[in-house]
Amino acid sequence: MLRKRSPALAAILGGLLGPIGYIYIGWRYALACLLMLLPLPIAVAVLGFGLPPLTKYFVLLVLARKAYTICRIRNENIERGETVEGPIDSFSFAGIQTADLLTGQAMACAAAVGIEISRSHFTSGRVLQGLFSIAITTPILVGVAALVFGLISGGLRTVWSRRLEAPN
To answer: Helices 39-47 and 101-123 sit at what angle, rounded to 10 degrees?
Structure first.
């Protein structure tokens, strides 16, 4: 029988340790989290883009929030009695729950880039450009990241859902 987990502790562990902290929820969640977080850094490295150091902290906040949400959903399913023969600890269910981490990570990276652009304008004495960047450029970057990676995450969620519904 599955035991409930503390969403607050899951958030703290996810925020401090990243995917390793998701082991508290379950090893399948940790593996699914890692798989959802790998594509973006690989793409950034291959394309030769640099991300500001602030990015990792934004991504850890996304991981903390998602760990809290996953743990809360998992606990609700356990309360409803979906623990016996249920998919709560299946890899497919973990994949569905973590699919939007890709979107969250992309949005966090876009926000960090936008803030870094603004910071560079401010430190160069270009206050008006800095204000424009923080007010216009950053939200546009975050919106584009949300759109593009939201579509990808939605596709991944669909694949995991079909896998979950497939007869064994």
So the answer is: 40
CB-based contact 110:46 (threshold 8 Å): no
pLDDT attached to residue 93: 81
Residue type present at position 130:
G
Return the number of other C-beta atoms located less than 10 Å from residue 2's C-beta.
Answer: 15
The DSSP-derived string for 125-160 is: T-HHHHHHIIIIIHHHHHHHHHHHHHHHHHHHHHHH
Q: How far apart are CA 136 and CA 134, in angstroms?
A: 6
In angstroms, the Cα distances linking 10 to 20, 31, 89, 143 are 11, 15, 15, 28
**Overall average pLDDT of the 67-77 stretch:** 91
| pLDDT single digits (tens) 91-126 | 888 888 888 898 999 999 999 999 999 999 999 999
List, for residues 25-58, the tens digit of each pLDDT value.
989 999 999 998 888 888 888 888 888 888 889 9
How far is Cα 41 from Cα 45, in angstroms, rounded to an integer?
Answer: 6
